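Deliverable D5.2: sample structural annotation.
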Amino acid sequence: MTIRVLLADDQALLRSAFRVLVDSEPDMEVVGEASDGAEAVRMTKEQHADVVLMDIRMPGTDGLAATRMISADPELADVRVVILTTFEVDDYVVQSLRAGASGFLGKGSEPEELLIAIRTAAGGQALLSPAATTGLIARFLAQDPADDGDRDRDPARAERLDSLTGREREVLVQVAGGHSNDEIAERLEVSPLTVKTHVNRAMAKLGARDRAQLVVTAYESGLVRPRVE
C-alpha cells in the first residue's frame, strides 16, 4: 500500500525538500501541498491523505487549529497528523497532541527519521521520542494545579483510570515513559503481543485514538508526573 502524504508548511522551500524525500520512497507519495491550515484541511479531504506533515506556525489557520479540525472530523478518522516543529520544547506541540496529533518531529531531524515517522504514523502508532516525552510532555502537561496551564485538564481522565486493571496501568506508565512494546515486554517480562493487547485495551477504555493520547492521559490524570531536575 502506498502511503498518501500531504505537506502543510508555509515555506515553499521546505515543502519542496520534503516532497523530493517522500517521493523518492517506493511506498509513499506526496498527494498535495498546503501553505496554511485551512488549505491543509481541505486538501486532506480532497486528496484522501493518510498522513499529514503539519507545521504549527502558519498564517491564517495555524497547524494547531487544522489538527483539531482534522481530528474532530469523523470522515478523517483514519488520517494521522505528524507535527513538524522547530523547537521540541514548544507547548503548541502539546496542545496539538491534545487536539489529536499522533506525534511530532523536529525540523532538524535526519531524513530517515522523517520517513520512519511517516510509516509509524501510517501504521497507527504514535511518534514520541524519549527526549520529547521526558522533556516537552512532562514540562507542559503535568503542570502545577495552581498554574493557569491546568485549566484545560479533564478531571474525568483520572476517574477513567479506575477501569484499568493493575497490569494495564503498569503498561500505561511505561508507554508514558516513551518505551516501545518490545522495551516494555522486556521490562515487565512478558511477550510483546501481551503488551500490545494491554495497550489496545487501555486505549479502548480511555477513549484514546493512539499511543500519543495515552501519554496525554497518563500525565493529565496524574498517573505519571514529571521528574524534578
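Annotation notes: The longest strand covers residues 28-34. The CA atoms of residues 34 and 42 lie 9 Å apart.
The annotation will be released with the project's public dataset once the embargo ends.
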